[in-house]
Amino acid sequence: MTNISFAAGSETGRVASKVKTRNLSLDRARTFLTLIVILHHAVIPYTFYGHTDPKEFFGFDMIVLATDSFFMAMFFFLSGLFVWPGIARKGAAKYLADRLLRLGLPFVICAFTVIPLAYYAISLRQHPQIGFPEFWWTMITKGPWPSGPIWFLWVLFMFDVVACMLHRLSPNMLDPINRLSLYGRRRPAAFFAVMLAVTAAFYVPGLMYYGPSSWFEFGPFSVQHGRVMLYATYFFFGAGIGVANMDKGLLAPDGRMSKVSWDWLVLTIVPYYLMWVLIGIKRENLGNPSPLPNWYEATYAFCFTVFSVSILFLILAYFLRFSHSGRSVLDLMQADAYGMFLVHYPIALWLQYLLFDYDMPATAKAPIGFVLTVVLSWFATMALRQIPGAPKVL
To answer: What is the spatial distance between Cα 248 and Cα 257, in angstroms, rounded to a whole number?
Structure first.
């Protein structure tokens, strides 16, 4: 079996191959999310807030609001699915050693190469005379040293560390979530309700306390303060599902989730619309104050949470329902998805740099950037995976 999630890595393949055949629906969901990440970065320059290009299109604001609200949280969910059996089979020390190889090594390499290459494209617009060696040295020694999308790797590793500690305290700690998953095979709405309640309980207070723009930053180590607990809840709900009998629980191929999708679509559209209503109120009625009133932050955070959990269920339901629908381009990309996630960022930013001076509408620039980023990052990953030992990491 090939890798199912970024957290699972090569260890997932070995565990799963002894337990079940490849879970095509989860493979496709993971690869689909990789494309969503690339799409997100491809359209940001042409939005109201990104607007690093003179061209703009409101439809891309709609995409960014949606993607930013769920895709990284869903990555943590998928990454958690195989953590508990991995720790049980290998032991905490061996498990974390493998995670360092799979997550830590790419983080270090990308922090010193991929990320400086990406942000150099942005720096050239402001300081066209600066050379890359000077830019790189300034970033590494003086900062700021942004992490781009690779912040996910170190945060995921820290969740793995916490999971190992909890497993040592009690291997049965996540059994209540697993029992809820088994019940969710027939009643996925019950799992949804509990996950929504727990996620909101952890996320809403954090967002109100820190605000939406507060980040922890230490060199290339960064994460959004207000979303740490959101990501943690997704990760550990995923871990709870994966404790045992995953093929008989919420994500069972023949469970209720695989037969229902329209309900999740409605639950997704309503909070998404309400978020836009709140954004309109903030801009037109409140005048974009900073900080925002507590009632506004709490209401927006709750709508955000409902949308985030709902679209998670919608995507999972879709891929469970159509997991036997024949071959897909997602299957072809599956083995390279992690590498595409790691290398796409400088490709996306340099394409935007090259497209900047062309008098083209945003609706042309963004699709060109997206398609070329997918193709080039895919080819780059396939080339990197030819290096001896690289497939163990990528």
So the answer is: 12
Instruction: Say if residue 137's pLDDT is above 80.
Output: yes
Q: What is the pLDDT of residues 205-246, one digit of tens each?
A: 988 888 888 888 899 999 999 899 999 999 999 999 999 888
Whether residue 109 contacts residue 189, with contact meaning beta carbons closer than 8 Å, is answered with no
| pLDDT, position 19 | 40
Q: Are 384 and 343 in contact (CB under 8 A)?
A: yes
CB neighbour burial string for 94-116, b if at least 16 within 10 angstroms, e if fewer: ebbebbebbbbebbeebbeebbb
* Bridge-based pairing state of the strands 215-218 and 221-224: antiparallel
In this structure, is the dihedral angle defined by the CA atoms of residues 300, 229, 80 and 340, taken in order, positive or negative?
positive
**What are the residue ranges spanned by the domains of the chain?**
9-392
Residue 4 has pLDDT above 50, yes or no: no
CA nearest neighbour of 136 among 149, 148, 123: 123
HSE-up of residue 62 (Cα within 13 Å, Cβ side): 8
Chain centroid offset of residue 381 CA: 19
The radius of gyration computed from the CA coordinates of the chain, to the nearest angstrom, equals 21
Give the Cα-Cα-Cα angle 343, 25, 7 (nearest 5 degrees).
45
- The CA distance from 306 to 302, in Å, is 6
List b or e across 120-140, with b for residues whose CB sees 16 or more CB atoms inside 10 angstroms: bbbbbeeeeeeeeeebbeebe
pLDDT tens string 322-381: 877 667 888 899 999 999 999 999 999 999 999 998 999 999 999 999 999 999 999 999
- Please report the pLDDT score of residue 20 as a whole number: 45
Listed ranges 20-24, 183-187, 285-289; the one with the highest mean pLDDT? 183-187
Cis peptide before 391 (omega within 30 of 0): no
Q: Which two tokens stand for residue 70?
A: 């769920």
Residue 360 backbone class (left: φ over 0; alpha: ψ -120 to 50; beta: rest): beta
Rounded to an integer, what distance in angstroms lies between the CA atom of residue 194 and that of residue 240? 13
Question: Within 10 Å of residue 241's Cβ, how many Cβ atoms?
Answer: 25
